[in-house]
């Protein structure tokens, strides 16, 4: 994929992961990004590997979209700053 795809909402993220896309990023200020690798688990939750600090977390739909409590992915989607790289 040459141009990253902007993730528009949680359903779009789920569809991208179901279709085999796993590399994502949050665009931060300037040229900085926060890379994520995302997989769907059998129970429907998301496993997220945060490449910047090598941490992993498992989150439900609510956990992803719940502000900054668990992750910045939800706010990034709402701000148009979350992208699929592959």
Question: Could you explain the architecture of this structure?
Answer:
- By secondary structure, this protein is α+β, with helices and mostly antiparallel strands.
- A six-stranded antiparallel beta sheet has the order 1-6-2-3-4-5.
- Strand 4 and strand 5 form a beta hairpin.
- The mean pLDDT is 93.
Draw up the topology in text:
Elements: E1 5-6, H1 10-18, E2 23-27, E3 33-40, E4 46-50, E5 55-59, H2 61-65, H3 73-79, E6 82-84
Helix-strand topology string: EHEEEEHHE
- pLDDT average, as an integer? 93
Q: Using the CA coordinates, give the radius of gyration.
A: 12 Å
Tell me the structural class.
alpha+beta
Major beta sheet, specifics?
Answer: 6 strands, antiparallel
Counted beta strands: 6
The largest sheet has its strands arranged as 1-6-2-3-4-5
DSSP helix fraction: 10-25%
Tell me the β content.
25-35%
The outline comes out as: globular
N- and C-termini, Cα separation: 5 Å
Which residues sit in consecutive blocks of at least 5 with pLDDT less than 50? none
**H/I helix tally:** 3
